[in-house]
Design goal:
Aspartate Aminotransferase, domain 2, seven-stranded mixed sheet, 18 helices
Length: 467
């Protein structure tokens, strides 16, 4: 006897199309206003690989990938199968006074991907939880209070992680923060050396490639930063929550510079896009200092961290990354895409820089040389800094069905985080679309600049409303 539709099937069918109204009433109304203002309110009903499908039959190529969560694409069949196997097995999970096989297996697989010195694992539910754990572990293991972080760095939004967040928009109004936190410029060894000179710093936490702006360090920065940390007795923490697990064309971004950190934080892609999971990969000496005896066994943990679904998602994700050769694919296809974008710089006055590694990419725009274009740029910047990028992302979405967004607040930088499975055909489509849209921005007056005037009007209205 065939069963009828389940609870979720029935709800999705009965309440289809209500999501924006529900979010306005019960969740973040301002986010709904943002989506409607920039024309991003689509009714997505299905997702496969790098594509989103909407109720009107449209297909969108996702270069945002949930801020890097969907490195494998959406609904990868091997991850789906692993989760179905766990659900069908009726396994005991979260007994708490127990240890599980799947957690041990995932820890084993993760350790096998890292530098040899990182031989222990702590599991958490998210990237920000891994940062919180790393900060606590560093303070306990060193007996020091200080924490050093970089301008424009991003490590999460819980209070400890926020204390080492280098973007003011996220910090404003939420202080006071953890004591002993010091901010230094990214890629500035002299500033780091000064910050460590007092020998009171527990950890220096840094993204090997900064997510906000996609800033790639100079060749010697991370290697020398690790050396300075060793000399000062400070632990070097690499935040690879977004740039790790193959995204940059290496399993871990620090491998580009042959750096061995004391801890690596990872999350996002490790979930396979399904069940949140994060991990701190760390040296055994640090781990053993924190969990030094049986009494201290529970001094730091997370209730849901080692649940079987999360562990299975992580195991399946690593299996796909390794088994399908996605690290090398990210390097090869990503670098060819970056080469194609860089070739546009001499053609377009607004396009100042293209940077990144593998499938972590950025296009930076800036003031042009010609007077007519410069005047248009200046008027837009007076309304809101960074507004020019929306004149690129909106037509990419509306006219070319490519989803992307800016790389940070008040930045004229657009960021691409494609799936590691991106095809050569999709790469070529992206390059063609970017060329067309950026070329349109150089036609003043034109339809793109009509859009710019509309966006500037919204920005000025919002500003006057706050005044």
């Amino acid at each position: 006897m065939a069963s009828g539709p389940g609870l979720i099937d029935e709800l999705l069918a009965k309440r289809a199309g209500e999501q924006f109204g529900l979010h306005e009433r019960y969740l973040n109304e301002q986010m709904v206003r943002v989506l409607r203002t920039i024309g991003f309110q689509r009714d997505y009903v299905e997702a496969r690989g790098p594509y989103l499908f909407d109720s009107d039959g449209g297909r969108t190529l996702d270069l945002l990938t949930g801020f890097g969560v969907f490195a494998l694409g959406r609904n990868h069949p091997k991850v789906v199968q692993a989760l179905q196997e766990v659900l069908a097995a009726d396994l005991p999970s979260l007994v708490q006074m127990d240890v599980t096989l799947l957690a041990g297996l995932l820890a084993e697989r993760l350790v096998a991907t890292t530098p040899p010195a990182l031989d222990r694992v702590f599991f958490a539910n998210s990237g920000t939880e891994t940062v919180e754990a790393a900060l606590k572990f560093a303070r306990y293991a060193t007996g020091r209070p200080g924490l050093v972080y970089c301008e424009h760095g991003y490590h999460g939004l819980t209070l400890g992680a926020l204390s080492v967040n280098g973007e003011g928009i996220f910090q404003d109004g939420f202080g006071p923060y953890l004591p002993g936190c010091r901010r230094v410029p990214f890629d500035d060894l002299e500033a780091l050396e000064r910050a460590l000179a007092g020998r009171d710093v527990a950890a220096f936490i840094v993204e090997p490639i900064q997510g906000h702006g996609v800033h790639v360090p100079s060749d010697d920065y991370l290697r020398e930063a690790a050396r300075l940390c060793r000399e000062a007795g400070t632990l070097f923490v690499a935040d690879e929550i977004q740039c790790g697990l193959g995204r940059t064309g290496r399993m871990w971004a620090v491998e580009h510079w042959e750096v061995e950190p004391d801890m690596i934080c990872t999350a996002k892609a490790l979930s396979g896009g399904f069940v949140p999971v994060g991990a701190v990969l760390l040296r055994g000496a640090i781990f053993d200092a924190v969990f030094s005896n049986m009494v201290r066994a529970p001094v730091h943990g997370s209730t849901f961290a080692k649940n079987n679904l999360a562990m299975a998602a992580g195991l399946a994700t690593i299996d796909v990354i390794v088994g399908e050769g996605l690290v090398e694919r990210a390097r090869r296809v990503g670098e060819s895409m970056l080469d194609g974008l860089r070739a546009m710089i001499p053609e377009f006055e607004f396009l100042h820089d293209v940077r990144g590694l593998g499938m972590m990419q950025a296009l930076e725009f800036g003031p042009p040389k010609s007077l007519k274009l410069r005047a248009a740029w200046t008027l837009l910047e007076k309304a809101t800094s960074g507004l020019f990028c929306q004149m690129v992302t909106i037509p990419l979405f509306r006219d070319h069905h490519i989803l992307c967004q800016t790389a940070g607040h008040d930045q004229n930088v657009i960021k691409f985080l494609p799936t590691l499975t991106l095809s050569e055909e999709d790469r070529d489509d992206v390059l063609s679309a970017v060329r067309q849209v950026v070329a349109d921005t150089h036609r003043v007056p034109g339809s793109v600049w009509d859009l710019g005037k509309t966006l500037a009007g919204h920005a000025l209205s919002a500003r006057s409303g706050r005044a």
